[in-house]
Write a structure and sequence with these properties.
One of its GO terms (molecular function) is growth factor activity. Belongs to the rabaptin family. It comes from Cryptotermes secundus. There is one protein chain. It contains 13 helices and 6 strands. It is mostly helical. The chain folds into 2 domains: about 525 residues, no CATH class; about 60 residues, Zinc/RING finger domain, C3HC4 (zinc finger) (Herpes Virus-1, 2-Layer Sandwich), CATH 3.30.40. The strands form 3 sheets. A two-stranded antiparallel ribbon has the order 1-2. A two-stranded antiparallel ribbon has the order 3-4. Strand 1 and strand 2 form a beta hairpin. Helix 2 packs antiparallel against helix 3. The protein starts with a helix and ends in a 17-residue tail after the last helix.
Amino acid sequence: METSSEVENFNRKPDGEEGDLNSEVQGLLRRIEKLEDEKQQIREEFGHQRAKMKELYLQKEEELKRGAVEQSRLLADVKRLSSELDEAKSQLVVAGFRMESDLQDEKRKCHEEIASLQQIVQETVEESSSSRSKYESEVKQLRKAYERLESENHELRSLLQQQQQQQGTADKGEKETPILAPGIMLSAVTKTLARKVVSQLGADASSSSQDSLEDSMRKAQEDAEVLRSLVIPLEEEIQALKEKLRYTDQQLRKYEGDKDEIIKWTEEEGDVSVKEMLPVGAQNGPNGEVVSPTRDAGSKVIQTSSLDSEVHQSQVTTSSPKVNVMNTSFTSISSLNELQACSMKKQSPDGHSPVPEDSKSLTDVTVEKDGENVGSPVSQGHPSGNIRWQQAMTPCDMCSNYEAQLVRAQQRGRELEKQIATHERTIERYREDLTKESGFRKDMEEKWNEKKEEHKMQVAELKKKMETAEETLQELRQTYMQVYSEVMNQLTSLTQQREQVQEQLNKLQKENDNLLGKHSAHSQQLQNEMIDWPDKVEDLQVLLLKFYEELIAAKVAKETMEEQEQTLRCEIQLIRDQMSGEHEERVSMEDSLTQELNNIKTQLHKYEKERHKYKATHEELEKLVKNSQRTAMDFEAQLTDALKVKKQLEEQVAELKSRVGSLQQELDNSEAVQKDFVRLSQSLQVQLERIREADTQVRWQHDEDIEECQGCRNGFSFTRSKQHCRHCGRIFCISCLSHTVHSGPNQRPSKVCDVCHTLLVRDTAPYFSTEPPHTPD
């Protein structure tokens, strides 16, 4: 009874520790799910903000395109109007002054906008430098964690080599070191548990670092959508984040490969650990005889072996519960067979064992596991039971070794708890960083909203100015049309007046010619003419009258010519005066026009420079827009890659959850197997004690001494009669004596109990192979 209570108390401690670890693992999984939900919410909010910013960006881009088209159209109109308004220079000067004032205002506003954009660029550069320093510190931390895990992996490999060396030495000299193998196995198993917990926590830390990377990517994407001019410094940061993500992915894959190697190693080492546990019940003495421990020592060995098998079952996932029970129980059956053989030798006078040959066959029993035969051969016993009893009473070194290993396992458990606490603090720090990042993102959104409102106001002012400029241009067009129509009317009226003046001039020229005597003969012609005076007086008088009329006409013409000469002289003087005045006016006008032309040329040159400048600015803006579009496409590709990575990680998380569930189920099965194993060990221990006591008392039990069945522990009644086992002489009920054995020369059937049937029948399965035996008193 004391041994059973000690076994139960000893088994409760590992169960409690494993329950604490399972609860901590579940808590970490719940935290991971909570963080995944928060990440999903943040992504949805980011999607909404991105849609809004995209609409705003498209609206701004359309307005920019319309402004560029309108600017080009206005420049064309200005050129055309400058060529058409050369005739109306006064209006051109006024329009030039207006345009100069408008350009100065636009220039001043452009400088203000450039200054504000430069300030924003400076702030973004500072922010990127701070985030870069933070990411570098995170990379250093991950590298330290990687170095620590690599050192632990190196230690594990060295431990594996030592285990393989010890296994080789154990195969060569199995009798020399039978006690050290279970301790090494326990240390290896506990270290494997520690590596698993550290790898899971490392995976959690890597997932949290990945969340921070996704937040930074979202932040960079928002910056790129709002201000396309800030893409160039952010691309370097995104490249660094990509490298960091690839590095963490490689580390995760490497850790998963190491974990698979550890699991395979534990599966391969499962048979070795079972072999190392076998000397607990079937260790051969120096003379080839079986060493049977006492009740207290046996209980301690059972406790330590149950702890060892619990740890082993929690790691090896491919072992079968029945095979583990049979591997450990055949040793006890073999030792029981040896003790019975020794007792039968004492009873026989010639020193030979009367046990049948069927009972000796139990020493050759083996169990197949995973294609390999794991056997526990038992050496044949010799007499001298007192020597065996004294050897059994000696203190067990394995018990002290197991106790020291238990203390070390508890220390490792405390170290694991400390590591879990540190990882929880790391998670809290990452959560605080996440809250800080969300607050910073909200501040940036508020700033961008303010900038958006300012840009809206500026766009409204530009629209008003464009409307006023269009109105001014419309007025200039109307004025030009009016001036043009007036000039054309004046030209038509001047043309008509010119024709009328030309007709009057022709008429006056004819009269003048008549008055000047242009139609009369010239003096030379008169000198050359022949003098032919008429003979008659009448003809002479007529000729005289004719000459007299001609003389009067000549005098009239002379007087007219003198008058005309005088008037012409006056007119010439007036014209000279007018010409001198006009010359002076022309010179002054030429000077003023030259000055105006120079001013207009300087203004035109200035406007040409500003046009080239605006054109270069427009080209730069177009380049920035194209770069921003390419960057947006890159960000979309990165987003798709990040979504793929997230999907893969979610699949890995689901796989790990299913694996944790299967491991939990296997752990429950192993706990049930361990409980059955404890019951079996207790039952076998009682059977061993009874066989040892068989040499000191009669084996046959009387009916009046026994009140309950020795197998099921149920009381007897009229319906349940008492039956004797024909081999051991103990009393059972009829249901517990269900086996029959044929013996003797006539092969008579005899009712035997389960234990005797297992001992007598060679090819039958052990009585505890189907269900665990009843717990003994």
